[in-house]
Amino acid sequence: PQPGAPLLEVERAVKQFGGLRAVSDVSFSLRAGEILGLIGPNGAGKSTLFNLVTGVSPATGGRVTLGGQDVTRLPARQIHRLGVARTFQHVHLQPDQTLLANTMMGGYARGRAGLLASLLHLERAEEAALHHEALRQLERVGLGPHAHTLAGNLALGQQRILEIARALVADPTLLLLDEPAAGLRYGEKLELITLLRRLRDDGVTILIVEHDMNLVMTLVDRLVVMNSGEKLAEGNPDEIRAHPAVREAYLGV
Ligand code: ADP
Ligand code: MG
After folding, report:
1. How far apart are CA 97 and CA 95, in angstroms?
2. What is the ipTM of this complex?
3. Are 194 and 249 in a shared domain?
4. Ligand 2 centroid to 127 CA: how many Å?
5. CA of residue 129 relative to chain centroid, distance
6. What's the confidence (pLDDT) of residue 126?
7. Full-prediction pTM beyond 0.80?
8. Which atom of ligand 1 is nearest to the CA of 40?
9. FRET label pair with 20: which of 1, 28, 111, 152, CA 20 to 30 Å apart?
10. Atom of ligand 1 at shortest range from CA of 229
11. Are residues 79 and 1 part of one domain?
C-alpha cells in the first residue's frame, strides 16, 4: 500500500468473554507507514485487541478491515497470508532449535494448511527459499552471526528480537508487537527503537503495545489509550501527555 493509505480499520470492535467485555466498542485506524502505540493498564484489553485483529480470537461484535477487505471472521492463517504478522506478549520460541529454524517457522505458518501440512508438502525449492529468507531476516535484525545457535541460549532481549525476525519472514505489511521491550535492558531498548524505525522506513506499518512510556513516546506517531476495554483517548504523543483523562486514569498524575 502507498504510504498514508488506510491500512487497518477497527470499527466498534467488541470482545465478550462470558460476562466480561474485554474490548468494548473500540474504533481506530492505522495508515500505511505509521507506527501506532496502544497503551493502557494491565487488563485494559490490548492483547485481546491484537487477538481480534490477527484472527487468533475473533471479535464478537464490530468490524475489522484490512486494506478495505473485511477480515473480521477470517481465520488467523488467512489474515497472516494477507500480510499481518505478530509477536506475543510472552516469548513463543523453540529453545532447543536454532535461531534459523525458529525464524523459518514464521514462513511455515503462512503455508496452506498450518505447520504440519506445510512441513509435509513444502517443496525442496520452497524450503531453500525459506531458508534463504530466514537468514536474510536474521541479518536484518542483527542476529545473523547467531543463526546456528540454539534459541534457548539467547538472552531475553535477543529472544524478543528473534521473534521479530520470525514475524518478518512472512514479509508483513502490518507488524503487531505485544510488549516487545518487556525485560529488555536500556541498551537493548535503544537497539529495538532503531530496528523498528528502520522497518518502518522499509514500508512496514507497526502497531505496538508497550508499557515503557519513554520508549513508546519516542517511537510512535500516534497513540490509542485503552482503559477497562474502552478507548480512552487517541492522539500524538504531545496530545496524549496533556490529555486530562489519560493523566488521571493511566499516568496517575
Ligand atoms: P492487556 O493486554 O491490556 O493487559 P488483556 O487483553 O490481556 O489485557 O485482557 C483484558 C481482559 O480480558 C482481562 O480482564 C482478562 O482477564 C480478560 N481476558 C483475556 N483473555 C481472556 C480469555 N481468553 N478468557 C476470558 N477472559 C479473558
Ligand atoms: Mg497484554
Report:
1. 6
2. 0.98
3. yes
4. 34
5. 24
6. 77
7. yes
8. 3
9. 28
10. 10
11. yes
